[in-house]
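Write out the bound-state structure for beta-D-fucopyranose.
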Amino acid sequence: MTTISPDLRTVRRPFPPGFAWGAATAAYQIEGAHAEDGRTPSIWDTFSHTPGKVANGDTGDTAVDHYHRFREDVRMMADLGLTSYRFSLSWPRIQPTGRGPAVERGLDFYRALTDELLANGITPAATLYHWDLPQELEDAGGWPQRETAYRFAEYAAIAAEALGDRIGTWITLNEPWCSAYLGYASGVHAPGRTDPGDSLRAAHHLNLGHGLAVGALRAALPATAQVAVSLNLHAVRPHSSHPDDLDAARRIEAVGNRVWTSPIFKGRYDDDLIADTAHLVDWDTLVQPGDLAEISRPLDLLGLNYYNPTLVSSAENAKNLPRHDGHGDSSHSPWPGADDVAFHLAPGEVTAMNWPIDPTGLSDSLIALHREFGLPLLVTENGAAFEDTVSEDGTVHDPERTAYIKGHLGAVADAITAGADVRGYYCWSLMDNFEWAYGYEKRFGLVHVDYDTLVRTPKTSARWYSEAIRRGGLA
Ligand code: FCB
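---
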């Protein structure tokens, strides 16, 4: 028997050649320039300007001014040694009203950004929809309306035709769970509506929009392009093995996870999901002939966004209990048809979002996705907010964030060792930014942003991540 020296045992570098070492952002969270070059309001402009919706009345009007500082930001990425950058395209910058021809100045911004990335050896990965629906489409009914799916596919075609020569990785939707359920059921995200039936209609039309967009992308992009979707699949854990708790977990897996993965990868909505939600929506009229074939067009990659596991049990009337699901307080649940499910805070340490820290949820999810669907995976988001403070020498020492990232990269390494084909890891986020309903209160960045001066300073976690990239993994 060979003995492995302790040193070698702790070196963990199963990351394959070409592994994408990245960081992620989203347009509304960083760009600012909200009324420049033809951009019109999205639902997030309207929502953030509505009193009481976002902490401190914060908006993305200026955000971190990436629109004007992108060259500096790309230089910063290059200094950190990132090999890939995931960002999103702003729909209202490219196609302001959500209909008709593109605005060239909007596309020019993304042409310049991607050229800058490529010139610095950084592979761009673009998300088409990170929640900024043009307001005019919301005024016409938003995602609960079928027409929105067709609008999305048209926008996808415009983006692919303009940028397909320089962007090789395309992600249709970011976390449709949030768009559907936080946007239309609990109302803590734009557009702030609270109708569970509409949230399920939105879910189906997001799926349909995804499928139609995959078709539009394939038609416009070179055959080498990789097309994906990014899902925040919940690592659901039952509180006990009591059958009622197991059923609570099943219900949350259905409405939280399988509502996306079954139509996308299996071309169907599961019977239990339909039964659990039949009192809220008529699935027979919602899902039209041909929809499931569109939605299940093959993908090249699946993106997983993971932050924390979800601990559930059954409860007679969970409406009266605090809901520790990590998704913001509302008297309306973001879980349509799951009023008897209670959400518990998992034991252990938490981040500034009160999200439990547990990297095993990431390895478990990656391994399960690999076994069930078999396609290559990307971790398209993972990271943590902490109460960062700037020390006298101007540095942000954030050992908690370093530990979080290290733990989760370890989980990715575990999943790869167990056979999962994981092709990349994108830390959320490159820099501090507009954290949706939390405004600028929660900082997720590897790089600190001073919101008065907009000066960027890498935190010690960024330095650690940079070293890890240079070594090709964990020491
Ligand atoms: C995800 C979002 C991302 C960011 C992180 C913290 O749900 O996709 O924009 O807000 O959470």
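---
Confidence is low (pLDDT under 50) at residues 1-9.
The CA atoms of residues 28 and 60 lie 6 Å apart.
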